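Fold sample X.
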Amino acid sequence: MNCPKGRRSFATVLALWVIGLASVLVMGVQSAGLGQAFGSRDSLAEVRARWAAISGMEQMIAILADDAENPHPTDAFNVYDRMSRAASGSVGQASSYSIEHWEGRKRFDGPADAHARIHLSRMTPEDLFWLPGMTEDLIAKIVDWTDPDDDVSPLGAELGTYLSRPQSYLPRNGPLETIEELELIVGILPLDVRGEDWNLNGVLDPNENDGALTFPNDNADGVLDTGWSGILTVVSSESTLGLSGLPRVRLGLGLGGAELVGRVGISAEQADVIAQYAGTNNASLLALINTPLRSLRGLTGQVINANAQPLTDQQIGLLIEEAAIDGPWLDATGPLVPGKINLNTVSEDTLAYVPGVTRSVADILIRERAGRGQGFRTAADLMNVPGLTRGRVQELVGQFGFRSSVFVIRSVGVDEASGMEVELIATVDRSRLPVVIRDIVIR
């Protein structure tokens, strides 16, 4: 039977449409399959890159933990050299990791030392004034943000100011937890805090060294301008461990004297004087740098032992590193104490902002450090430096330490087949054992 022409045409069109739809469906299934394959491949690449980054971070943590318990007896730079040698490596043949940071124009293998910066909590308003771009009103606002009350200081800002903002929030009323928290303080700009290091990863990334081609704008001079983040820290903390790798000897009235004998190499009589002095109000082990044992006074105000034999410089240095006046910060769950600046790792640029350190003293310290291949180990290394009095050394040791507890590790894992990268940035604290990761960012 013959079909009408119109119906044959319709049947032909329908057949072609069905064939076309089938082709589309087949292509869709193929595309979905390829998409899933590519997606699975990307997921696998990301997993390999992430595990490589984790592997690098674990290498650094293992070195830091080992050095905390078994520090090198003479070389202050030994732990940095170890981390530098392990700062890159392969995980099988599929992935690799690298760990680096920048200080100005120089790139370094290994983690960044948080103690190479000044802890914000150790700075007075007068100290803050010397930071680049700092003003009196910004200082007042920083003080109001960090103090425990809601009283507004002149030029400052408190609870009412932050509640009235379009997206309201509360001031910290306590110490900052991260350096970028400064940007929450009204009037402080990200440029102040970050400089060119817009992602705060401590590395001169390509977009931070290409002028105005990509964000952020920079001067393309090959130097990482880090703003205040390159000068300040809020994460360094004092170690509860001594140079021996053992917990510090806790000194108080009659407490810890016997342990000092073996740890510092002093006599029982000397240890007894130190223990009694440590139990007095406002006692400080740093006073021993400039005050003989025979002059120390006890709770009654009387000289403890006028016949006490003097300590050697080496004994004083060891005492300051191995012991501490008893306090809650020495407990495993006690409050962290803001860390001192590490005299071995602080840059010359940052040294210029350290409170109370004049240009002439900074020059002396830089010159002396350059001549010490193994760095400073204790206060004794400063006591005979030309140009530094005992009183000045006592002041310096109140600000500077010789060993660091907190490091910022930026580990980049790479999947070798695809080139995919995963960046981990962790703040690692070994001021107490076990070593802990206090903060981690994954990019």
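Fold sample Y, listed below.
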Amino acid sequence: MKSIKSRMMFTSLIVLVAFMILTVFALERAVEKRMLKAEEDKLQALMYSVLAAVDRDATGLSITVSDTRLFESALFDPGSGLYAVIYDVKEEIWRSISNEQGFDKPSDLVPEELRFSQLEFDNRDWFQLAFSIRWPNVHDKLSLYELVLWKSADDYFAQFERFRKILWLWLVITIALLLVLMWLVMLWSLRPLRLIGEEVQAIENNQKQRFDSNYPTEIKPLTQNLNLLLQREQHQMQRYRNALDDLAHSLKTPLAVLRGLSEKATDWNEDDTRTLHEQNNRMNQIVSYQLQKAATVGGELMAKPINFTELLKKTVGALNKVYKSKGISIELTTNVAVYLRMDESDLLEILGNLIDNACKYGRQQVRIKAFRQQDMMLVWIEDDGAGLKPRQLNDILTRGMRLDQTQEGQGIGLAVVNEIVDVYDIKMKFSESDLGGLKVNLEFKNI
């Protein structure tokens, strides 16, 4: 069974039927026990009625039952199926008018014992209540007697059989109704999965770009991650297209220069050779940058959380060694341990490029502060360099604006950072630093 619906329905059917059958058997046993107890109580009540009519016989040495004080009419009807007999130690001494059968005397009845039994006699089922009593004679001497009541069990079994048929009928009806109800509940419960299948098909047919339905809590993380994967894939494809477009556009000028040089290859001089090398290096830089930009990972909710604080400290420690000869002092202030859902190489690219630029263009001091604000992580990177002009501050984050991406150290790293923060929806803002140079504000969400 590859269908979840079929598996759930089959399992539910087995569990439901087993539960209902066990319930019916348990109910049957309980009702049977209660009905037997009711029969026993009826015979006990009849026994007390017969005992109330017991009196001494004419001799005073034995007992008999006064018909005038016996109010149970069934004991006077031969076809009633209700009979009473009294025995002394040896033989029968009294029987009800209804008793036309020769019932056997109970055996092994202990004195003063009350015993209820279900017996088979003359191919019929009977209930028997036997009571051993001591009754005083005329000399106040106690004699032992046995009062035995017989009642036909035909009505009991007929009634119990009717109850059983009705019980099993309602069992079938209940199972059918519950199966219909379970089917409807299952359709309603599995509806989100059906909607996911429909939206997947719509996405495959380019009719939709993402999962839009409001799914239950259990499925919502799945659709959110799928949306991030789709967004990441679409963004990745767009980056590839942009990178190829930029690569093709950036290589036009170097290729034109090389083509011009190739046309006069017979009379090259030293300047031509140097120009050829410069254009070759320029193309290498362009290709390296475009490939690096296209390889940005992205998709924070699908990435494993990484220790931001630890990575920041490692980056600062490495750059301290690099710029030790320059005399740059890097001051790091942070007192929080934060984990971010990012690719480690992407985060390292952001921190490394921005702090490296601060060290590169700063004079003596670089100040870094990382702190948490509600559900965001804020990072400030400042330097005491020359900074940027107001016009450059406005243009540096404009999409498509590049500060000479073809020259190493003059915009390639920053352009890559701009691509990464755009993928992760990280806010990056440049402003004037209190130290006199440039200040970068980073705002990380979903920490």
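Sample Y note: The chain has three domains: 4-100+107-159, 220-294, 300-444.
Also: The domain at 300-444 is CATH 3.30.565.10 (Heat Shock Protein 90).
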